[in-house]
């Protein structure tokens, strides 16, 4: 179908195949573009990726789920970065 993108994410525990429409992709890119330089330069991008992956999987991202996802693939989660991320997003999803 034109206008859809297949995203395949493979890692040690998660196998997600999801079709995203253009609106959803646009919303994800807007979230990334709206981040302050401070957040991007602080190494929070892995935490943002975990947040978006959880949403794509139909989960509600929160501090525990982000930390669990990161640690499941061998990434040390930083509680302060997770709090900063959640505050910046105000617990919004990619559709908002």
TrEMBL record:
Protein name: 16142_t:CDS:1
GO CC annotations, alphabetized: cytosolic large ribosomal subunit
Alphabetical list of InterPro entries matching this protein: P1/P2_N_sf (IPR038716), Ribosomal_P2 (IPR044076)
UniProt record similarity statement: Belongs to the eukaryotic ribosomal protein P1/P2 family.
Molecular function in Gene Ontology: structural constituent of ribosome
Organism of derivation: Funneliformis caledonium
Protein keywords: Ribonucleoprotein, Ribosomal protein
One of the protein's GO biological processes: cytoplasmic translational elongation
């Amino acid at each position: 179908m034109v206008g859809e993108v297949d995203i395949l994410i493979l890692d040690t525990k998660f196998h997600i195949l999801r079709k995203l429409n253009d609106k959803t992709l646009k919303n994800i890119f807007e979230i990334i573009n709206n981040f302050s330089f401070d957040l991007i330069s602080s190494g929070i991008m892995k935490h943002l990726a975990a947040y978006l992956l959880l949403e794509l999987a139909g989960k509600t991202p929160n501090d525990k789920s982000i930390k669990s996802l990161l640690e499941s693939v061998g990434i040390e989660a930083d509680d302060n970065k997770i709090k900063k991320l959640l505050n910046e997003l105000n617990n919004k999803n990619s559709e908002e």
